[in-house]
Design goal:
The complex is a heterodimer. Chain A is mostly beta strands. Chain A has one helix and eleven strands; from the N terminus they run βββββαββββββ. In chain B, a hairpin with a 2-residue loop joins strand 2 and strand 3. Chain B is mainly α. Classes of the chains: A mainly beta, B mainly alpha.
């Protein structure tokens, strides 16, 4: 059952159950599955951490190269503070992110976001979490989303005009 | 007092002598000396205010540079908040936008751009950010749901810790391959369509 506004219009296009990491039994980070890149043909499914305290879609260099995010010139040099450390890297506008829905929970959605690729993948120091982060600014703020912590479902909705 | 003042006060004819006392001035301009003093004070205060603003601007720019270099994000954001962007020049704004990106504050960068760019539409320093901040089209596409997610999630929940530190490939709830590097894993799997690739 997808969430609806009072007028019956859908809040969410789709949803998917999520895992929590680093501990499956406790609510730590919400981890969802996504597809990345421009390709019509999937390069693979990836785990991504929902992290509202950082900006951008953060993608380490090896994954960015595999899905073609950093194939062109960067739009801007930048940095991101992760786990208290300032990590330098490059910003790519218009990277494609597909939020994947479970088959009984609506449809998946693909939309453009800003990707941040750290200069050094080792700067993403946590080895108990996936290395892809869905940050808030220029990524999660592009669509409506909601978390149902009781059912463990991440809902994602219509694209927000920016 | 120059006789031009008397002419300006509307007598229509010049004074024959310099006025030295208030009562020697024409009746209709008794406050002229006071106004003149106020005007001079105003000019002086205006200069002082401009000097104070200039010093404050320089001090805030120095704080922004320092905090960006040392990675003090909170202090950087505070300095950016204190800066009167409505009066700032394009060059300084462009520099701080660049710093804001480098310290991971893209929303601050956009705010400064929006505040300053509308007054400096021809600035080359700001035009380099124009493409970055130009409005993006709504290009979301709906795709079919993925029937394999649940099986992959369940497999990870049950087996992830057995492969700690390795890259793993899982398709529809079945392990395909493991490797120490992503490149090697992709080579081993071949067709990665609908294959979950992750580091355990």
């Amino acid at each position: 059952m997808l969430i609806e506004f009072d007028d019956g219009s859908p809040f969410a296009n789709g949803g998917a159950a999520y895992n929590t990491l680093p501990d499956y039994e406790h609510s730590d980070y919400v981890v969802v599955m996504v597809e990345l890149g421009e390709q019509e043909e999937s390069v693979g499914l990836w785990e991504a951490v929902v992290h509202t305290a950082i900006p951008y879609l953060i993608c380490p260099p090896d994954i960015a190269a595999a899905v073609g995010i950093n194939a062109g010139a960067p739009d801007q040099l930048g940095g991101v503070v992760i786990e208290g450390r300032l990590v330098p890297g490059r910003i790519y506008k218009g990277a494609k992110l597909a939020l994947l829905a479970d088959e009984d929970k609506g449809a998946s959605v693909r939309l453009p976001v800003w990707a941040f690729v750290p200069d050094n993948g080792d700067d993403l120091t946590r080895d108990d979490l996936p290395k892809i982060y869905l940050g808030m600014a220029n990524c999660l703020d592009r669509f409506q989303f909601a978390v149902d912590p009781y059912e463990g479902v991440f809902y994602f909705g219509a694209e927000v005009t920016v | 007092m120059p006789d031009t003042l008397a002419r300006d006060c509307g007598t229509g004819r010049p004074f024959k002598y310099m006025a030295r006392r208030h009562h020697e001035l024409p009746r209709y301009a008794p406050n002229a000396p006071r106004f003149d003093r106020h005007r001079r004070l105003y000019e002086r205060f205006k200069k002082q205010l401009e000097e104070l603003r200039r010093r404050r601007h320089e001090s805030l720019m120095a704080r922004l540079e320092t905090t960006a270099a040392t990675g003090e994000r909170r202090a950087f954001l505070n300095a950016a908040r204190e800066m009167p962007w409505a009066r700032s020049g394009a060059e300084d704004a462009a520099r701080v936008i660049d710093l804001a990106f480098r310290i991971g504050a893209p929303t601050v960068a956009r705010y400064i751009y929006d505040e300053v760019a509308k007054r400096h539409t021809d600035s080359p320093a700001l035009q380099k950010f124009a493409r970055l901040f130009e409005p993006e089209e709504r290009t979301a596409r709906t795709l079919p749901a993925n029937a394999t997610l649940k099986a992959n999630r369940e497999w990870l929940k049950a087996h992830r810790t057995e492969y700690r530190g390795l890259w793993i490939a899982v398709r529809n709830g079945a392990l395909l391959a493991t490797s120490t590097s992503l490149d090697e894993l992709i080579r081993r799997v071949g067709n990665t369509t609908n294959v979950l690739l992750t580091q355990a």
